[in-house]
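Inverse folding, one chain.
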């Protein structure tokens, strides 16, 4: 398992955090979030940033996909790490079969790898997405989503 990308993301966020004057706690219920745009998600996906923009250029968001919801095809110039915290979902690299991801799994999408991820057709899934930017492509069609 590749933990180096996560370590890099955390190290990038550390300098700003180290300069804080005192401990801060943001309660889960107080974190802002929103339904993902229909340009980049099919179905209902709730996106809640975990790291504020002033921390640095790494993005960490908690994303919950309801059954049938998924991201559009996309790539990341520096890769993406998904840390699955609840439920069961699917992830697929373009041209490869989709794969199951479950709570506790960590998925690494290397730089430039075109992929999508989301819930299964019957279960929701929640994951943390760690990345430095995203290059969105077209929505995953119902046929692509349903294929094995």
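Residues assigned per position:
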């Amino acid at each position: 398992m590749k933990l180096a990308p996560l370590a890099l993301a955390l190290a990038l966020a550390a300098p700003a955090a180290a300069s804080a004057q005192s401990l801060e706690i943001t309660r889960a219920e107080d974190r802002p979030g929103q339904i993902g745009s229909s340009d980049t998600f099919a179905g209902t996906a709730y996106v809640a940033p975990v790291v504020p923009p002033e921390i640095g250029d790494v993005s960490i968001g908690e994303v919950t996909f309801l059954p049938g919801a998924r991201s559009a095809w996309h790539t990341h110039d520096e890769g993406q790490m998904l840390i699955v915290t609840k439920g069961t979902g699917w992830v697929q690299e373009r041209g490869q079969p989709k794969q199951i991801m479950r709570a506790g799994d960590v998925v690494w999408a290397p730089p430039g790898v075109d992929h999508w991820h989301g819930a299964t057709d019957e279960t929701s899934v929640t994951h943390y997405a760690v990345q430095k930017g995203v290059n969105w492509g077209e929505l995953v069609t119902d046929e692509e989503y349903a294929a094995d």
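The CA atoms of residues 31 and 63 lie 12 Å apart. Residues 4-18 form the longest helix (15 residues).
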